[in-house]
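To whoever is on call:

I kicked off a structure prediction for a single chain this morning and the downstream step that reads the tokens threw a length-mismatch warning. I double-checked the sequence; it's 236 residues and nothing unusual in it as far as I can see. Pasting both halves so you can look.
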Amino acid sequence: MSETEKSLMETIEEDAGKKSGSSQINITDLPPELLLEIFSWLGVRDLYERVPLVCKKWDILARHPSLWMELSFRYKDIPTSLACKLLHRSPLLRRLILKRRRDSDAILRQVYKSNRRIETIKMISCRGSMRKKEVNGNILKGILEVCPKLFNLELMDTLVKTSQFYRLLGHLDGRLKSFRIDDATENGVRCYLETRTQLLLERRGLLNGEFKDVEDMIDMLEKCPKIYRWDFIFTE
């Protein structure tokens, strides 16, 4: 248990001790461990906006790091400013899911700043911003560079064009256990595969549903120049 967690638990136990003389028990008097288990089933808004209003004990518990290891932001359920604020207060974040977001660049910039322990990023039907479909590949590249524990990356129906991002994927391939890009550009796939070939590391994966090694994938690119959408999957 970290020093922060110990401090939170000591404050809660001290507060609970003051009420020990009362014979009446309600939900606010439940042990911290049980309350944390209950809170873990709540959504982000409930946990952030409603739970802290009940009492001081719940306010402290709602900030417990164990409750902020996974975040999911879908469509407009969480405004951009609040999403970034929640990321900032979640330094132990392990898993982030973005679905149908139109502010992905802003959210990813905050991940780059605040969430260096992240392990999984999953994006589904996301845009960089309201005006731009493409997600900024340089931000994703930066996240890959500063987040050494990031081993699972899924970009589904999410456009990334930046060549440097695909090249870095090639260099970090040994670290990534799995990644999926189902709207990859031909140039992006080519950059990744050429990097893999240069590094002389073997790996097999799926390209548009066909299981192939790197060299065969390059041949496929040459033979199918008119395909504009590539489904690109590599797993450990």
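Update from on-call: the warning came from a stale cache, not from the record. Cleared it. Sanity check on the structure: The radius of gyration is 22 Å.
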